[in-house]
Design goal:
Elements lengths: L2 E5 L3 E2 L5 E8 L8 E6 L6 E6 L5 E3 L7 E6 L4 E6 L8 E8 L12 E4 L3 E5 L2
Parallel strand pairs: 2-11
Antiparallel strand pairs: 1-3, 3-8, 4-5, 4-9, 5-6, 7-8, 9-10, 9-11
C-alpha cells in the first residue's frame, strides 16, 4: 500500500516560514497528483493545495500568495512552502494522493491515501 510520511511541522512565530515535506513510498510518485490538507480539532478538514502529475497547481484562496506547493520527483517528495504564517494557519497538515490523476481535486473524497499529519503551530 502507498505510504506517506509528513515532516517539518513545528512551532513558529507569526510572520515566519516553514517548509513541510511529504515522502511517498510503495507507489509510482511521478504519476500521482498530490494534495495538502489541514485540520484543527473539532473542525472539518480543509483543502490547502494540489499539484498534478503534470506539475499544474492550485491553491486555496486562504493561502494563495503565501504558500507554494511543489514536488521533487527524483526524491519522491511533495513540499509545502509556507510564508507569512498567521495564527489561523495553526493545524495538523496532511498530504494525500488523489484517487485519479487527471483532474485537480479540492475535496477530501477525491483522495485515496493519506499521511499521519504534522503539527504546525503559529503563535507569539
Amino acid at each position: 500500500q502507498v505510504q506517506l510520511v509528513e515532516s517539518g511541522g513545528r512551532s513558529v512565530q507569526p510572520g515566519g516560514s516553514l517548509r513541510l515535506s511529504c515522502t511517498v513510498s510503495n507507489g509510482t510518485f511521478n504519476d500521482y497528483t498530490m494534495g495538502w490538507f489541514r485540520q484543527v480539532p473539532g473542525k472539518e478538514r480543509e483543502f490547502v493545495g494540489v499539484i498534478g502529475w503534470n506539475f499544474y497547481t492550485a491553491l486555496a484562496e486562504s493561502v494563495k500568495g503565501r504558500f507554494t506547493i511543489s514536488r521533487d520527483n527524483p526524491k519522491n517528495t511533495l513540499y509545502l512552502e509556507m510564508n507569512s504564517l498567521k495564527p489561523e494557519d495553526t493545524a495538523i497538515y496532511y498530504c494525500a494522493v488523489q484517487a485519479t490523476r487527471y483532474t485537480l481535486r479540492s475535496t477530501e473524497d477525491g483522495y485515496a491515501y493519506w499521511g499521519q499529519g504534522t503539527q504546525v503551530t503559529v503563535s507569539s
